[in-house]
Predict the structure.
Amino acid sequence: MDETDAIEITESRDALVGKLHVRRALPRRGRRTVGAWCFADHFGPTRIVEGRGTDIGPHPHMGIQTVTWLLEGAALHRDSLGSEQLITPGQLNLMTAGSGVAHAEQVPGHHRGGLHGIQLWIAQPEATRSSAAAFEHHAQLPRVEVQGAVVTILIGEVLGEMSLARHDRPLVGAERVLHGEATVPLERSFEHAVIVLDGSMAIDGRPLLAGRLGFLAAGREELVLDTDGATALLIGGEPFPEQILMWWNFVARTREEIGAAYVSWRDDDGRFGRVASMLQRIETKPPHWQPVP
């Protein structure tokens, strides 16, 4: 089998974000990025009940874009730019951190029921990673019906339809709700991954279950997905040319950059701004290489 035809299947890692259990598909040992996509936390389905803490208090980011996508439930985003935005299934929240931003995520007080979704990070390239922070909400996204699937385009272009969401490098992100066999065209210069969010499927004949990621190297022009019923996210992009360093909520190039960002958050020196949230600000220990004053 040609190397470009091989499918690399990896298990997600169970993690805890606040009190929310997630399955972390990226980064994993041996697979740190897919294009510029560098992080993927799949959460739920879970039930939201009184007193159950699924809220994430104010915390900082730099050097990335955060992508929030829900299959069920609702979430309220607040950030240090002054944004306050409710997101529901079928809508996209995209926050660009640039040199620094802070945000908080919480389940709206009126919401009771299910919560299911995914948050992803996109590493910003050198040209934009020190730029100003920004936030955008897309209440409507392009949707295409094809044989065997309904495709919603979050970022980039699929099947001739283009999302208006910002991306700083050639990139694609699309939800596919599958109800049979579907042939998926791929951009040959992109590497891709399929993350199953609900149900199970076969990818070129190999089983792929929820909690797993199927990676495909650049050079492919299509793949075949087959299922009795499943929802999956296809992500991809040109292989990221820069070596990135990830620590906590920061994506940088050097330890010195991360150390400086940690000190700014610890000292609350204004770099990341303030979030108008009643939730408790999240603190963390310094990087292991950082001397403690």
Remarks:
- The first helix runs from residue 255 to 267.
- The chain has one domain: 3-237.
- The two ends are 55 Å apart (CA to CA).
